[in-house]
Amino acid sequence: MTLIAGPAYVAAVLALYTALPDTPNRASTYDKNVASALFQRGVPLQVVESALLLGTLRRRNRPGGLLPLPLVRSLAYFSPVVDEILLQPLPATYLDYLRSKADQFLRPDVQKSTFADDR
Fold first, then answer.
1. What span, in angstroms and rounded, lies between the C-alpha atoms of 104 and 82?
2. 21 vs 7: CA distance, rounded Å
3. Pick from 31, 2, 30, 7: nearest CA to 17
4. First to last CA, the chain
């Protein structure tokens, strides 16, 4: 894993977040603070990306007939998934799996920047 400076880390997290469907096109000041807190906690960027993808795929993989979920309003929405992954790390290849699922199910809806290439 490559270490990156705080501003680059925050920018990468925010790019990943705003690239997702159902998230704002621009990050708020609060989102920047959440990303900065993730950096200060030492959360690896791969864990954040995994949490964002896993949380989004979970949101999208709901039984039919249910009302749609409201839009995600903050990066903090994904904090419980980050904590879940930190407590029980994913297998080494799982991020690749999540990326492939995102390609399959999410990217057609997204006309924003890419997920993984902003590291």
1. 23
2. 24
3. 31
4. 11
Average pLDDT over residues 86-115: 79
Number of compact structural domains in the chain:
1
User: In 10 A of CB 36, how many CB atoms?
Assistant: 15
> Which domain does 106 fall in, by range?
6-62+73-110
Q: What is the rounded CA–CA span in Å between residue 108 and residue 100?
A: 13
Separation of alpha carbons 60 and 81, rounded Å: 15
Half-sphere exposure of residue 100: CA atoms within 13 angstroms, side-chain side: 5
The answer to whether residue 68 is domain-embedded is no
Q: Taking a C-beta distance cutoff of 8 angstroms, is the pair 17, 111 a contact? A: no
Q: With 50 as the cut, is the pLDDT of residue 111 above it?
A: no
Reported as a single tens digit per residue, the pLDDT across 36-72 is 999 999 999 999 999 999 999 999 888 888 888 899 9
